[in-house]
Write a structure and sequence with these properties.
Structural class: alpha/beta
Order of helices and strands: HHHHEEHEHHEHEEEEHEHEHEEH
Strand content: 15-25%
Largest sheet: 5 strands, mixed
Distance between the termini: 58 Å
Shape: elongated
């Protein structure tokens, strides 16, 4: 059969060379990256094209660009390299269950909440695990990292039902927001507050391009028949929120998971405001039809354990 014959002749090294040429845009730079000579790079590409019987690269003033045949081969090859990496990682983990690497993409709120708690617990149980964390603002950005297999899982808000058919979501709990003020804020002395009373205060809000967090905050104000206030500060950093709120001059709306799982913040006090219930599912997203490594399974199991109290609320 033609596919079997071609499959036996294609070598992993040839695909690696093709990847390098496309990423570097020139054969010279690809040769430097792979510590090979340029003639070897050229011959490797030529041999691969001869094996497949199609042209894989177009050479032009902007450098080497993949043809539609080349893009098709690269797309499938990403999965091949990822499965190999997963297999090698699984072998290492089976040989030493305390070691391995997990690559995670997550939103900023997860960096200050659920993620560090999960990492801490896993490191106690498996001291030689390492974690590579990629931060992103929107689900689309994080899912792109997952599809390109730059990360093993995404931790963040999950739109349910998830419209992307190639992604596999698991909801851990429903995220809710609360309004916080500093310990010295005059609003701390009040026992009952309506959100409308705070509309003209200095607010710290997520920037408009923070699609997930800002959308939920906007919905809360709109559900109270209020316009979203003009934010005095637009930022996604919970550390900045903490510092500014501590001054007593700013208010903020933050996820409950940050207060539950993050470090204790005596400078941040929850105001007694009954907000509309607009929960957003928070969970883990993986890629369908992709091998789930033992380390990913460990992370998911640990995140379930830690999230269980919130999942009952």
């Amino acid at each position: 059969m033609w596919p079997d014959r071609v499959g036996r002749r294609i070598k992993i090294r040839q695909l690696e060379v093709l990847f390098a040429v496309v990423e570097c845009r020139t054969m010279g730079k690809a040769a430097e990256r792979l510590a090979l000579s340029q003639p070897v790079i050229s011959k490797t590409i030529a041999d691969l094209e001869q094996t497949l019987g199609v042209r894989l690269l177009d050479r032009g003033p902007q450098g080497a660009e993949p043809t539609h045949y080349g893009r098709a081969l690269l797309k499938r090859s990403i999965a091949i390299f990822d499965e190999l990496r997963q297999s090698v990682g699984e072998i290492k983990f089976l040989a030493d269950p305390t070691a391995g690497e997990l690559r995670i993409a997550c939103a900023d709120s997860m960096l200050s909440g659920l993620l560090p708690v999960t990492i801490n617990r896993l490191c106690d149980r498996h001291p030689r695990l390492t974690f590579r964390v990629t931060q992103g603002l929107s689900g689309a950005q994080l899912y792109r990292e997952l599809r390109e297999r730059n990360v093993d899982l995404v931790l963040g808000k999950v739109a349910m039902p998830l419209s992307e058919p190639d992604l596999e979501p698991e909801v851990l709990f429903e995220e809710r927001y609360v309004v916080v003020a500093g310990a010295r804020s005059p609003w701390q002395r009040r026992r009952n507050i309506k959100l409308a009373e705070l509309i003209n205060e200095r607010w710290i809000l997520q920037p408009p391009d923070d699609n997930e967090g800002r959308a939920q905050v906007n919905e809360i104000f709109h559900a109270c028949d209020l316009d979203v206030p003009h934010g005095a500060v637009l930022a996604a950093s919970i550390q900045l929120y903490d510092t500014l709120v501590a001054s007593g001059k700013f208010l903020a709306m933050v996820p409950t998971s940050v207060l539950r799982f993050g470090p204790k913040r005596p400078s941040m006090k929850v105001l007694p405001i009954k907000l509309p219930s607009i929960p957003r599912p928070l969970g883990i997203v993986t890629l369908k039809n992709r091998t789930i490594s033992p380390i990913v399974q460990l992370f998911i199991k640990c995140a379930r354990e830690i999230s269980r109290p919130l999942s009952r609320n």
